[in-house]
Write a structure and sequence with these properties.
single chain, 106 residues, 2 strands
Length: 106
């Protein structure tokens, strides 16, 4: 089953994993140390993130390291941009209303 990136980031544990590996690549064991869950549960989350191409695997000797796939994160950012613009407009409108009220009180 092909999952999309929004299914992947819907889970708080997967979002936390993304945050962890955003700065540096990590092994599954190193990632699992940051959670109060089993190594198998973390592996399942990593598999989902990998299927969605949000993380990539790199073999280094006997270890597998997971790192963030920036191109896919940009896809999320692009989707969020429409909401940023909407809220920016609303906050600007609110600033105008508040300024008007403040001037009326003086």
């Amino acid at each position: 089953m092909r999952r999309d990136i929004f299914q992947a980031i819907a889970d708080p544990t997967r979002r936390a994993i993304i945050t962890l590996i955003a700065l540096q690549a990590m092994t599954p064991n190193a990632i699992a140390e940051n959670f109060n869950t089993t190594r198998q549960a973390v592996s399942k989350h990593l598999r989902i993130l990998t299927e969605c191409e949000l993380v990539k695997q790199e073999q280094q000797g006997r270890e597998i390291y997971y790192s963030l796939e920036i191109k896919k994160m940009k896809e999320i950012d692009k989707w969020l941009e429409q909401f940023r613009k909407l809220w920016e407009t609303r906050f600007n409108q609110l600033d105008i209303v508040l300024s008007t009220i403040k001037k009326q009180k003086k």
